[in-house]
Design goal:
By secondary structure, the chain is mainly α. It contains 12 helices and 6 strands. The chain has a 3-stranded antiparallel sheet with strand order 1-3-2. The protein has a 3-stranded antiparallel sheet with strand order 4-6-5. The relative contact order is 0.11.
């Protein structure tokens, strides 16, 4: 018997339904995996799983060697939405992230320690830990147990990361070898327009928000054609993933950085690289300012030598 579809698949399926309604697709429309994956900022595998879920619901059909096609018209789907419940795995995932950010748990723990603290069975534990590893939050120790990957988890380190990016990212637009990819720019623009229109909706997961954000910055690094810049931005994204993944509760800031990103995309699309450089500088400066003492970071008593952050107060760079 097939396992129940994950909550992420159900969320993606709802986003696909929303896309169908907004685009006003009629029965028979070809739902291309890659196009939808690009729009939603995810890979083809989760997109395919979400489409298969819609097949099970009788909304989409598969045609041999052709792909997925819409069965119902957009107006017949106005009130259709797949339920998304909070599973035990989702709950454990969120508790582990939040407890790590607050300093309630150590950087490294054994499976026995985690199972005992959170009172979960082995199957749920392993599925959750494996997913967190896939998301770039955890790594399995050589001996036994798991460790959170290095992250910008204190005021000084977080500020240093933004200051480094301020030195690198704005300058990247002004390099003579900077060459934008029109198709990539348009995909990014569509992704941001989608997020901007759903910034208050729980249908857009924190993971999707972070991936769109990270891909935006890596895209421009790739346009610059400098391998060292690309590697540096990718490393910065890995370092800040844990903090910013859990900090997207401030959806007003999400709307703001979507607008800032779109302004940069438009500047590059029209060949105004100097403007794009200045816009990126302002964009990163706002996040850098938020990391300064007395701004957004919480001041709590250290736990085991570390100064924890309050998740809701973590600045979001976008």
């Amino acid at each position: 018997m097939a396992s129940l579809p994950g909550q992420n698949s159900r969320r993606l399926a709802n986003q696909i339904l929303d896309f169908v309604r907004k685009a006003r697709f009629e029965p028979g429309h070809h739902l291309r995996e890659q196009q939808i994956a690009d729009l939603l900022g995810v890979s083809r595998t989760p997109t395919r799983n979400a489409l298969k879920l819609l097949v099970e619901e009788g909304i989409v059909e598969t045609r041999r060697n052709q792909g997925f096609f819409l069965l119902k018209a957009f107006d017949a789907l106005q009130r259709v939405e797949l339920s998304v419940s909070s599973s035990v795995e989702e709950s454990l995932y969120e508790r582990l992230v939040n407890d790590r950010l607050s300093g309630a748990i150590a950087n490294s723990m054994t499976q026995t320690e985690i199972a005992k603290r959170y009172d979960v069975d082995r199957v749920t534990l392993m599925k959750t830990l494996t997913r967190m590893a896939e998301d770039g939050l955890l790594t399995r120790n050589k001996g036994h147990g798991w460790s959170f990957l290095p992250t910008l988890d204190n005021d000084e380190a977080l500020r240093s990361g933004y200051q480094f990016r301020l030195m690198v990212e704005p300058a990247n637009f002004l390099q003579p070898q900077f060459r934008p990819n029109t198709a990539a720019l348009e995909r990014s623009r569509l992704q941001h327009l989608y997020l901007a229109s759903h910034s208050d909706s729980a249908a857009v997961s924190n993971a999707q928000l972070f991936e769109t954000d990270a891909q935006f910055h890596e895209m421009f690094a790739e346009f610059g054609g400098n391998t060292f810049v690309i590697q540096a931005i990718q490393q910065q994204n890995r370092l800040r993933k844990l903090l910013e993944f859990a900090g997207y509760a401030n959806r007003r800031r999400v709307r703001d950085w979507c607008a800032e990103h779109l302004a940069i995309i438009d500047a590059v699309a029209s060949g105004r690289y100097t403007d794009a450089s200045e816009l990126m500088r302002k964009h990163l400066t706002q996040a850098d300012t938020a990391t300064q003492p007395g701004k957004k970071l919480a001041r709590k008593a250290p736990v085991k030598g570390r100064k924890p952050h309050k998740v809701a107060d973590i600045p979001i760079s976008g």
